[in-house]
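#help-structures

NK: newbie question. if I give both the sequence and a SMILES, will the prediction place the ligand too? trying with zinc ion
OV: yes, paste both and it writes out the complex. here, I ran yours:
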Amino acid sequence: MKNDADFRARQLELIENNVNAGKEPPWREALKVTAGFAAILAALYIIIGIAVGIYVNAISFKTQKKIESLFAAANPSAEFKGKEYAQAVSALREISAQIAAQNRLPENYAPDIGVVYSRAANAFLTPGGKIYFTTALLDNVKNKEALAFVLAHEIGHYVNRDHLKAMGRGLALSVVKILFSGDSSTGVVSGGTDAIARNSYSRGQEREADAYAQKVCTALYGSADGGIEFFEYMEAKDKLPEFISYLSTHPSTRSRIQKLRNN
Ligand SMILES: [Zn+2]
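OV: that's the protein plus ligand as structure tokens.
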């Protein structure tokens, strides 16, 4: 019987050794699979982002308008419908007509301008090509040249198709998120819109938009001092929590003022 017991013990030992032979603890295996999967998703995100960038740069203005029309209805829910800002909007429309007269816009493009309720002074461009000013910005920044700089900056993003590139990146992120979680409830379109809402432009894109605004404002007013006034206002408000997100996605306000002064 002793031999029998020995035999069984040896068998068990062999089975155990066999199970563990060349194997790592299960958590390590799981970690490797997850890391591999994450690496594939990250690569996919980068590839889709690059492909969208190349595509967006290559399309005609007509195709651009077609893509924008798909998103025309996706306007911010906090859109301000009242008449209180009608005068400010018509002044901005007038400035945009002056910019169009400089031939610095795609042919037949007249930016649609809207107002959105927000306590953060900001302006942004939607995937549909509409430019929004927040109520806080219109309440606090009254100087026409400062508002012209902000408008021209957003038009600069439009001319460089940054809104479509950001949307493409948002789209890539949505695809990756859906693949990762298997949950498609967020939707691809809302991912693109979210990217815009987060103001997710790169510093390079911001610099380009500033440079465009500087050219436009210098042609209109002889200088881009309006931009300096706007940034100084933003800098003074810098410590308020609602401005942190705006400033963190933009080049430092100081460096932007410096750039406008140097030119
Ligand atoms: Zn910008």
